[in-house]
Amino acid sequence: MIAKRLDTLAISILTLLCMVFGLQQIAVKLTLPDISPVMQAGLRSVAATFLLVAWMKYKGETIFQRDHAEFWGIIAGLLFAGEFLVLYMALEYTGAARATIFLYTSPFIVALGAQLFIPGERMRMIHIAGLIAAFMGIVLAFSDSLFSPDSNLSETITGDLLALLAALMWGATTVVIKATPQSQLSPSRVLLYQLAISAITLPIASVIMGEDGVRQVTLNSGLGMLFQVVIVAFVSYLTWFWLIRHYQASKIATFSFMTPMFGVFFAWLILGESISLSFALALLLVASGIYMVNRN
């Protein structure tokens, strides 16, 4: 049974998840001096895969079995790994603010895919208006950092396109999970496909890209990786896929607009980065957009 609207429990869980996803960027940034970015993502997936397998064994789930969703599981896993790969590549060419803007076009991909491939997920004009309002809030929040007079135009465009590709992969992953036999699997099994495939592909990609990998292990990087493995890749992703299974994909995806807002807030709180006066208005736009998308 798929719920049409997000109830109070779902909204509370989604808000917490967006906070976690926002903190993830802080953890990645604090770990970067010690571990290169794509290798971080790969090691996170490796460790989280072992943690997930242990959880599934504890719950009595069979790890290796025919579930008639293998093909779509591999597709979702490759999209999941590809998203992180091209996103980190994008950050080599364009600014973090610009990459965030393009990455958070993902809910539009989910909304379009839901209309085409997921029965019963139809959006009215108010829902579309809500998506646009929330996205404009993200643009406003990062408006001060969008343009840099010193940036190389060709490199910036390359980075923007890579971030847009990451958004496409993120949205496509959600649609694949919701519109195929993957939707009938347990959240842990859905996550297993994605973690296992990215655990194999991302470390290999890091080596091919010539990254330094693990330079050293410090308290900051240790705590940062622990947070990414246990809280993000295991607990939060498992919860995210549970929500996708039980609620409309387009409504769930729209909530992700809150993530960069929390990211900005935590960057101010933890890293001392500045917040412009437009942030409050941006937050209002995001909240209004989410409200409109979740109206009947």
From TrEMBL:
Domain (EamA): residue spans on this chain: 11-142, 158-294
A Pfam family assignment: EamA
Recorded GO CC terms: membrane
Topology relative to the membrane: Multi-pass membrane protein
Annotated TM spans: 38-58, 70-91, 97-118, 125-142, 162-179, 191-210, 222-243, 252-271, 277-294
Subcellular location: Membrane
Keywords associated with the record: Membrane, Transmembrane, Transmembrane helix
Keyword Translocase attributed: no
Family membership noted in the UniProt record: Belongs to the EamA transporter family.
PANTHER family named among the record's database cross-references: EAMA DOMAIN-CONTAINING PROTEIN, INNER MEMBRANE TRANSPORTER
Name by which UniProt lists this protein: DMT family transporter
The species this protein was found in: Oceanospirillum sediminis
